[in-house]
Every structure is written in C-alpha cells, then in structure tokens.
Amino acid sequence: MDNIAIKFQNVTKSYLISRMKYGRFSDDFGIFLGKLIGKNRHKTLQRETLLAINDLSFTVHEGECLGIIGRNGSGKSTILKLISKITYPKSGQITVNGKVGAFIELGAGLHPELSGKENIFLYGAILGMKKQEIKGKYADIVKFSGIEKFIDTPIKRYSSGMYARIGFSVVSFMDPEILLIDEVLAVGDQNFQKKCLDKMKRFVKSGKTIVFVSHNMDAVKLICSKAIYLDGGKIKMQGETKTVISHYLDDVKGSKNESQ
Amino acid sequence: MFIHLKELIKFRELLFAFTNREIKVRYKQTLLGASWAVIQPLSLMIMFTLIFGFFLKINSEGVPYPLFYYSALMPWTFFATSLSFGSLAVINNGNLVTKIYFPREILPFASIIAGFMDFLISALIFIVMLVIYNVPLTINVVYTIPIVFLETIFIAGLILFTSALNVMWRDIKFVIPLLIQLWIFVTPVIYPLSKVPEKFRPFYMLNPMSSVVENFRKVTVGGLAPNWNDFAIALGISLILFIFGYKFFKIKEKVFADVI
Predict the structure, then answer these.
(1) What Å distances lie between residue B133 and A166, B38, B48, B128, B205, CA to CA?
(2) Residue ranges of the ABC transporter domain (chain A) (predicted)?
C-alpha cells in the first residue's frame, strides 16, 4: 500500500477564456500584427484566464480508491483529464505510475454508424486493449451488457441507456492499473447501476487504484475509502469519505438556505 | 522523433482500429459502397480524356488518353482524398480528443491508410484498362512501390501540419479544398511534364507531387525507369516536411483538448 500511484505536486491548470470560443485566424493574426507593430489594438479581445485547478497537491497510493466531490465547475473532471494526459498543466508536477484506463464519458469513442459488435472492438482498442484480448473477452462483454439481441444493429438506433451499457461493459473488462471514472452512473436503469457498482467494488478488491468523480454520494460512500472535496479548483477538505461528504452536504444545504 | 514513432508502434492496434472504422464508416449507407473509390478517378479520367484529349488534343506522348489520365489520377486521388479527410481527422474526433488519451497523429494517419486502400481498389481498374488497351507492363512497375512510399511520406508531412492547424483555425477547412483544386494545375496530371518550359522546371519540381505523378506514369504506362534525380529531390523535401510536421504536431497536440 506504500507505492504511490498518482501524485500531484502544486499543479495549476488554467484555461484561456478567449480560447474557449472558436479560434479564428483573423483574431490570432491580428494579435500577431499588433505585436509586430508594437501596439495592442485588440484590447477588446478577452485574454482572461480561468484557473480550473489552483496549486493542487495530493497523493493516491496503489490500491486506494479516491472519491472526488464538489460542485459543478470545481475542477473535478480537469483532474481526471490531467491524470490521463489529455490535457497538460500550466505548472506543477504530475506523476502517474501504471497503466491508466479512463472511463470519462459515456459514448465517447463509440461510432453511431457501426454495430454493437464493431463498437466493442473499436472501443476496446481505444481503451488500449489488444484485439486478441477483446476476442477472448467478447462473449463476456456482450453478456454483461445484456444487449445480445441488438449486437449487430448500428448503435445509432440504440437508446441512451444501451449506449451507456455497451460503453461500460467494455470498460469493465479492461485491465488497467489505474481506473478513472467520471459520472458513469447517471445513465442506465437501477439494475445496470447495481451491476456497475458491483464491478467497481470488485476492481477495488483486486487491488486496483481508482479515482471516482461523482455527484452520487451513496456510490462514493460505497466504494471510496478516501475523498477530496474540491471548491474553486482548490482542496477544501480531504480525508475519510464519510466526514468529507457530510461536510460537503452541509455546505450545499447552507448555500441553498442563503439563496432562499 | 523516434520516441514518437515508438509510441506509435505501441498504439498500432488503435491505428488499425481507426483505419478500419474510417473504411467502414466512409461508405456506410451509400448505395454504391466502395465503388466510390473507383468512380472518382474514373469519372475524372473520362472528363479529361474528352476535354483535354479529344477537344484540346494535348500531347500524351503516344499513350492512349484514358491510360495517360488514369495513371496520373491514381496517385493524385490518393493525395487528394487523404489530404481532405486527414486534415479534418482531429477536429472530427473532438469528442475522443477531449476524453481519451492516445497519440493524436493516429487520427490523420488512419485517414492516409484508408486512402491507400481506395488507391489499391482503383489499381484493379487500372489493370483491367491495361489489358483492354494491350499496354504491357515492364519490370519497372516495381518502382511504383518507392514512388507511393514517397507520396505517403509527403502526404503525412503535410497532414500533420494541416490537421493540427485546423484545430486552431477552422479556416484551414476551407483552404484545403481550394488548395487541392489549384494544386492539380501545378502537377503534371492534365498535361505531360514535357509541356512545362525548361526554365521553370527546377521550381516546378519543388512540388513533390510533380515527381510522384510524372514518375508513376513513367514506370507504369511508360514502361521506363523513374527519373531518380526528381525522385531524390521530392524525397528530400518530403522527409524534411515530415520531420518538421511531426515536431509541430507534437507541440500543438498538448493544447488540442483545450482548444478544439
């Protein structure tokens, strides 16, 4: 349990707000020209930055399950993106030891025109599985998803719940050392949600490291031993899951009362 | 550079999975399926034969017009399709780029391989045409392999720039089709290289596609060995473009998820 799986040291991530709209050559070229001439004629253009993660440090040990909670926009998903190297920090250091499997959003990577079967292979490859490996697990994946009947149908004809199922089924059969999960339980019926939770619990038991982002406090409580409460890109509290959650819920209630 | 190639090899399964997807999806819900790969060069060939061959009587150096045009349109179509699909490869997969980590160059590279598959399909028609016109191939046809290799390097180098620039400035999306339209006129597709005035040749050959198309025609319907001097110049330019393109792409890749 002493081996470090994930370590953040004073990590800061900022987004350029003007970059959040579509980039246009004329804008960038205008700024470039402005610099060349030596005056800044584009004062109207926003160059504000947004600090999504502000000087954040934490450690996750091997085999631990960390829950991350907080309001919308507090930087939860950004942390997962930083861990999986989708985006890079502005400053600070991130160390990740082990193969990362990210289950960040349902349906990303599935192609609507392809059938369920084709998508299982495609998604498996995206998640870093070998073709041979997927072939071996294919029957189990289909069984777990519970959509044997529609496996040759293009998934654009699937319901959103079925989308979620096929995605999660593939994920639950991959074999990463570190698993990142972001809000996967929002879709899917009760039955499937229970299946997912069971699967996640098994992941924890088998000694895998998990970082779990969710608004579903019951699920976080059920799976995670440790939790971080994020607020405005900073850690407001970290520690044992129950304590952190009750603190967070108090805060939410408090702000509700204020607004009333 | 070699680190990147090594990582690319590690992710080769994903490259094939994306190629597979691109091929499958490209002709989904089309009536004619993969025959579109043939229809494009074939219809251009008929048009060119009619207009530039029979109406304008362009000198085809003794080669029947349909063969003269088709032998140039094969490498040209490979170039044009790969460039137009590949330049969009990153932005069209925005949902993947913002959610899952993998070396991003896999996306444009998959477009090139898919374009190459189309090229192979169009080669079948070429063989049929050679039989009909009773034009025998010589041993020099083996030189199509280094020529197509050179073309692939050139396309890859170009696409690494355009697909990355497209993420920042969507203007590129409009530039590419225009560029392809104009480019065909500075490449000996419609006319033979001998029509280009001697004094412009050194500049004309700076376009690697000139060397590709002219040499491809020469080793197939011409039955001759390629012009190695032109080949070497084109290869040099393409390799430089590829190396710088890869560097550029890898630098820009880090902000893809934030900007896209």
Answers:
(1) 53, 18, 17, 9, 30
(2) 36-257
Query: Tokens representing A151?
Result: 């496996």
Residue ranges in chain A whose pLDDT is less than 70 = 1-2, 17-28, 30-31, 33-47, 104-107, 184-188, 258-260
Q: Find which of B30, B90, B101 to mutate to test the A interface (most A CBs within 10 Å of its CB).
A: B101
Query: Which of A86, A111, A129 shows the shortest C-beta gap to B99?
Result: A86
For chain B, positions 190-219, list CB contacts with chain A under 8 A. none
pLDDT digits (tens, 9 = 90+) for B36-60: 888 888 999 999 999 998 899 888 8
**Cβ atoms of residues A58 and A10 within 8 Å:** no
Whether ipTM tops 0.85, in short, is no
Closest residue in A to B167 (Cα–Cα): A23
Q: Does B9 touch chain A (CB under 8 A)?
A: no
Q: Which residue of B has its CA nearest to A106?
A: B99
Domains defined along chain A, listed by start:
63-259 (3.40.50.300)
Would you call B99 and A88 a contact, using CB atoms and an 8 Å cutoff? no
Reported as a single tens digit per residue, the pLDDT across A122-163 is 888 888 888 888 899 898 888 888 888 888 888 888 887 787
